[in-house]
Amino acid sequence: MNVTVVGAGGHVGLPLSLVLAQAGHFVYGLDINTEVNAQVMAGQMPFIEEHADNLLKEVLATKRLQMTDRIDVIGRSDVVIIIIGTPIDENLNPRVDHLIKFIKAAKPYLKDQLIILRSTVSPGTTDAVRKALGDGDGDGDGDGKLDLVFGPERVLQGKSIEEIKSLPQIIGAYDERAYNRAAAFFNTFIESETHFLTPTEAELGKLITNMARYVEFALANEFHLICGQFGANAIRVIDAVNKDYPRLKLPVPGPNVGGPCLYKDGWYLVERVPYNEMISSAFRINEGMTMQILQQIEKRMPAGKVVVLGMAFKANNDDTRNSLAFKMRRQLQFKGYDVVCVDPRVPGHSPIEDISGADAVILMTPHREFKDLKAVLGHIDNPDCWLVDIWGLWPEMRHTSDNGYFQSHEVKQT
Question: Quick check: 123 and 111 in contact, CB under 8 A?
Fold first, then answer.
């Protein structure tokens, strides 16, 4: 088929475009960022994604991927996959204006295509798109018009190539015709099954998928804070209670639970309900971890140089969207600390050598480049430098630190 992927230069759209082209479809990668379009067509990935570099070269050689900013390619397509972000505004309300604006611009080129909304959206967004398309569009009544479905991605960023193919696909459709048409398309490139829901059910399913993880992280972070009140090491406890116990898989705590989805998705769910304490509390706990770290740093050293390790929102990635590392930096700077940020995966930040002279080092993002604690210590010339590892990345102090806080000389003595 001819497929247009709208937003094909992004972290969701580009891996999907590559998988579709690999499966034999011809893909128009529609994106307004002409610089990214040119970069992709030159065989260069604009961000880190496992297996993507080789796959990009492979599909370019087959000439089944064409990046473009021309919206009229929609008229030559059998399937249109729309990946346009719907962020929250300053009042935590969802914004769909960019999406609806695109739908109206695309209408002249739409006839009988299958339209798939793929971004994470607030409940009712697919209905709003259906309305913008016009009465009858997307209803699957056999009149030859459009079929509209919501088919969310649920991949782990960085492993999208693998998981697009392997994960089951939720399809929110208004009727069986639209579902069958979408399922037939997804089955050309996924290896798992599809599930038939209504569009609103699928929207809710995607959101709770993300929020289940977010609340779980919040529980781990709250447990970390509880352990601190009792002088206990949270990682040591978690490792012990998880071991070979079939009903508990508590994640390790972490100071950087963010990203473009987890930050906003919960607000889509709670805006209509009075009993929103669980998700709202999870947000406050996870967003408040940087202040908890700052308070601990202040107790140990009222002034000095602090190095923040990792600015991306997740390990082994270069995506900084909604990363709490920037919040950590601002809070430290507000308190008067000299702050240096190190991230080998994000351009524009200091090299690892700039740890020299640090009075404290905070591990915000557990990149594999930071995993060797001895290598990190090799750049630290202050024996009393405080190190913060709430993740438990460094095995030397995973179970013996003061709940994630220790000084560099303690490691040398161990």
Answer: no
